[in-house]
Structure formats: C-alpha cells, structure tokens
Amino acid sequence: MTVDETGQDDAAADAPGRRPPAGADPAAPWGRCKQCDAPLPRPPKARGRRPEYCPPEHGDDGRVVRDCQAEAHAANRVPAAAAVGEPLAALRAVLTGMAAAARDRAAREAEAADRLQEIVDTVVDRNTELERRAAEAAARARDADAARRRAERDADAARAETAAAGAARRAAEERALAAEDVARAARTAPAGRRAQS
C-alpha cells in the first residue's frame, strides 16, 4: 500500500466519494485539521459535512492515542484558548488563500519564463542561421576575389602574349620587306649588267 502526501493510500484516492474542491491546496486538497494543521484524508462519504479534524489515532491495544477533535474541545474550554481560536482560524484562512495565490502566481511566472526561453531559443537559432549564411557569403566573396585575381593574371598574360605576337609579326613584316628589297635589288642588278655588256 502506498500513501500520498495527504496521508491516504492510493486505493482510497481512487475510491468513489468527494472530489477536491477547485483551487484546493495540492498539499492538503481536503483541507487541514483545525487542531494540528495536518492535511486531512479524503472524506469516506460523498455527502455530508466535511471533517474538520484528523480521524482519531488508535494504538495497538485499540485505545485512542490521539484525538484532535477532543483536544480542540478541551482547549476551547480554556478561556484563553477560546479567545485566540477565532483569530487563528482567520489567520489560517488568510494564509491558505495567500498560498493559493502564490501558487497561481508561480505557475504564471513559470509559464512566462517558458515563453521567454522559447523566444531566446528562436533568436539564438536565427542568429546561428544568419552567422552560417554570413560565413558562406564571406567564403563566396573570397572565392570570387581569388577568381578575379586569376582572371586579371590571365588577362595580363594574354596582353603580354598579344604584345609579343605583335612584335613578332612586325619583325616578320620587316624581314619580309627587307627580303623583298634584296630580291628587287637582285633582279635589277643583272638587268643593268646586261645593258652594259
């Protein structure tokens, strides 16, 4: 048999009967004893007046060891105890309400903290994605710059080859002109010699 924090076993919790009131203290869903302030067990009946005191505790010999209701009645017979009984009950009611309000506030704050964490996670994920894209763009820019430098070197080499080819062509043209001059001179020289003879 397992016992929960309210002092009742699992079978009693599943038994038919009363249900905890809405907004009940989770630590004491059935209320607290007016005498010892301990959580009360689940009422055995579905109807009727809700218990205000812990059920009597019996020893092994069957005698009552503790009876909160009897102790409360005995204490109320003393004038001083009767004078503070009502203020203590009012204080207990106020503190119970404050505890419920604090639990509600804690639940709202936990929900807000979860929402904030979701926002932070979303921002971090987006920043990570932006950083990845920026790194890719920087890598593409470096590749483009390297390609531009290679193209400039290739263009410089092509210009140098073009200049060298132009110089070679001009030299070839000059040699061809010189060869034509020599050939022309050679043709005109024998004709002059023949005329002299």
TrEMBL record:
Comp. bias regions, Basic and acidic residues: 49-62, 137-159
Q: Where is the composition biased (Acidic residues)?
A: 1-12
Q: Where is the composition biased (Low complexity)?
A: 13-29, 160-169
Q: Where is this region: Disordered?
A: 1-62, 137-172
Query: What is the protein name stated in its UniProt record?
Result: Chromosome segregation ATPase
State the species of origin. Answer: Actinomadura chibensis
